[in-house]
What does this fold into?
Amino acid sequence: MNINEIQDGYVIDHIHAGRAMRIYRYLELDQLDCSVAIIKNAKSQRMGRKDIIKIDELIPLNLEIISYIDASATVNVIKDGKLIDKKRLTMPERVVGALKCKNPRCITQTEQELQHVFVLKDREKAIYSCYYCDTIHKPED
Amino acid sequence: MLHLLDIADWSPEDLEKLMDVADDMIARPDDYFDAAKRKKLATLFYEPSTRTRLSFEAAMLELGGQVLGFSEASSSSVSKGESVADTVRTVGCYADLIAMRHPKEGAPTVAAAFSPVPIINAGDGGHHHPTQTLADLLTIRREKGRLNQLVIGLCGDLQFGRTVHSLMNAMARYKSIRFVLVSPEELRVPEYLREGMKSLGVPFTEVERLEDVIGTLDVLYMTRVQKERFFNEADYVRLKDSYILTMEKLKPARRDLSIMHPLPRVNEIRQAVDKDPRACYFKQVLNGKHMRKALILKLLEAAK
It folds into this structure.
């Protein structure tokens, strides 16, 4: 894969340095058959250092998860080698079914088929809490 | 449908009305002896709690209603792996309301999403215990004559003490409330609660020793500190006596202090304190039963 030239796929840019692996993990990019590149600590005029993820296929992408981990990221959509969309993200009010509550005493750990739900508590401080047990979760955790 | 899951879900006005009913029940018990006649309360206790369960059962019986349920998970279908959702859907066919105690935090929220009848959270893990808070609120109101302009000391295990969390959430909504949180560093209130108090603008201080602050308090709410909660033996030895209330320690305290405890106690309040007129913890037990009666009536009424 030439990581500079994607024909059809995504470039997730402006990720805070150090958060790319979390996005990779939560999006389960290791399950993909296509090429995926992670660039860590790239130089950035705006951010100093940033991470970038490139995905060489237009897979269904869960923007909610990316927004939760890093709302400052931008998602560039590439088709036929051209940038066709630049998605800017905002922190979601709720994240349903995508993330797991870290509290071992939470009912989500044992109740069958119960989706984990995170609710945005403080947009400024980027604080979420579990809908069921109120445990605080921060994107940088 | 109206449930009681977290005390913060109910407005101060709704809680005041509940307290008015409880006051009336204390003044005129005969008016309520068949108020819940032919109604059934299911007590689903997934972990043992004799006093809370008995308080609910006594409350329902005093209202002329009936009770059914289980007092530990091993004697229920839960031991076969049944979900909370299925259990309440089933029990909701037998009873008019459900009081649930569960070791997992948020279990009553799941129950409320599936139950055809009102759910009362009778304690979920280290999370909430709103009916204890009902008892606490009525006790403070009856003892102090108000629920505002109070300095409230909470002492002991503030991290895992769910009664403390519920009480703080409830009292934070009244004017001029200040909390003095007395605990070892390992057992301070959880972060979500600290953040919550900050965002509401409720002042609080955190200290390690009760002796340093007891003279400033209007209410002292004691809880048990268990040795196994400490991370090291040295801290336990250094601090254990600070969380035991004695007559000696009460010397600098105000004459109108109200001493409360959710019970059961082990040794954190010496028995000599029981005779002090400032001790309110057994009144709390009685107030708890009356508030549960008021709650049962309110939920049955709302579900009509």
Summary: The domain at 7-129+285-302 of chain B is CATH 3.40.50.1370 (Rossmann fold). The two ends of chain B are 10 Å apart (CA to CA). Residues 94 and 241 of chain B are 49 Å apart (CA to CA). The beta strands of chain B are 40-45, 66-70, 97-102, 119-124, 150-155, 177-182, 204-207, 219-222, 258-260.
